[in-house]
Design a protein that fits this description.
The chain has about 350 residues and is an all-alpha fold. Helices cover about 75% and strands about 0% of the residues. Helix 2 packs across helix 12 and helix 3 crosses helix 9. The chain starts with a helix and ends with a helix.
Length: about 350
Amino acid sequence: MNTAARNLALYGTILIASLAAPWVFPAYQTQLAFLWMMVLFALTWDLVGGQMGYTSFGNIVFFGIGMYVTAVVQRNLHFDIEEYVHVAGAVDMLKPGEYLTGLFLGLGASAIVAVIVAAVLGLCILAMGMRGQYFGICTLGLGVAAGELASGWEYVGAGSGMVTPVFPERLGERGAFFYYIFFILAGIVFLTVKWLYAGRFGLAINAIRDDEDKAEAMGIHTTRYKIVAWCISALFLGLAGGAAGHLVGFIDPTEVAFAGATFGVWMILMAILGGKGTLWGPVIGAVIFHITQEVFWTYLFGWQRVAMGVLIVGIVVFFPQGIMGWISERWPERFGHRVEESTVASASEGGGA
């Protein structure tokens, strides 16, 4: 079977299994929806952190912005704001058409606002030449600041949080509905980054990762590429945040929207676990991380965080290059690296001598 046939079989299997999953496992629709959200997290973080080499702890900012913008657009479109805030969202349920209109308008607004914020932040941070640990610390501060600002803003519920409009029963199962939204988003992200990595954009951001000074000397507009990469991540994270807020049903500023200690860290761990700087690594890392987390939270309640810590340490010690890095070292011929038989034979004879 040639490469094209194998890829077609692989993508076809994933598509069929993904479409059937919420009906085969109806009790786990919400968990499966979060699985695709984790895949999106890992892929969008790896675009900047893995492929470009800029470790960001602040990508959660765009996720939180998307969550609030979508909820606010839908609330303001159909309800009286003072009444909605006063009764904490306990108002009449929207009709299916109204709910979908507000949701998709909100998602579009979330993507736009997230990209604008990323562009402004990029001009303020990346254009100043901030790199390495300084960039990481700066983005970490952005996530903390965003959570504190949302906690003090009464328009979005402040520290009490914000309730999203109730999902209409006539639209079916909420878990299945948002499962397919996240599945579609994750698929679009995967295909987008695959296309980007195969062209000039991928070569440019890889050059920035390997040696930014040399890349600039070769005429690559590094600042432009860095800002564009961050904006692409922000676009998809804004969409994911808008959908996640409605899936959860309640937006807490620090525990859900700008949850840097959980979502913000997990997106980095998942990419590292699978193998950052690769196409499939973040996907594999997200799947393994999410499934393992669900198992720990189910069977090791009270010790789940300890178990996750042990898992992370084990991965760093035994798989420092991530799962994809370990696989490529063990079976290099599957990744286009030829291992000549004569070289292997010589090495064996040398070892025996």
